[in-house]
Design a protein that fits this description.
The protein is mostly helical and 131 residues long. It has eight helices and no strands.
């Protein structure tokens, strides 16, 4: 039988997810430096990186990548950080993820699928990498 999770741990995790969502890069980096896993996921499988990408915070995305966040990890619905950034049309975030090696064809729907479905030619061009 598993032990219940300490309420303080749950509160800390919630705070860390809020930092990623809100783009509070310095404070989030301090938690990562203190040992919070860069690939921490919530109950939907969203990673800190997916949340930062979805909310358009390229500096936070860069910090998470620097701390070893897995840009290829998908949430429970198959969405990746790159697909989230394309959906939100955050060019700087897309560029940071592509530069880090994120696969435009990973996940479902993939970032490339998102750019096509929502008719986002600027995002599709960014997925091809630097010209």
């Amino acid at each position: 039988m598993s032990q219940p999770i300490d309420p303080e741990v749950i509160e800390l995790a919630g705070r860390v997810f809020d930092l990623a969502r809100g783009g509070h890069t310095e404070e989030l980096s301090a938690y990562l430096d203190a040992g919070v896993p860069a690939n921490l996921t919530n109950d939907k499988g969203d990673t800190l990186l997916i949340l930062a990408a979805y909310h358009g915070h390229p500096a936070t995305v860069a910090a998470l990548l620097a701390h070893g966040a897995d840009h290829g990890r998908a949430n429970d619905r198959g969405q990746t950080a790159l697909a989230a950034a394309v959906f939100k049309q955050s060019a700087a975030t897309v560029q940071a993820l592509v530069a880090a090696g994120a696969d435009p064809d990973a996940g479902g729907p993939s970032a490339r699928d998102m750019a096509t479905f929502f008719e986002l030619p600027a995002m599709a061009a960014l997925l091809e990498g630097p010209a």
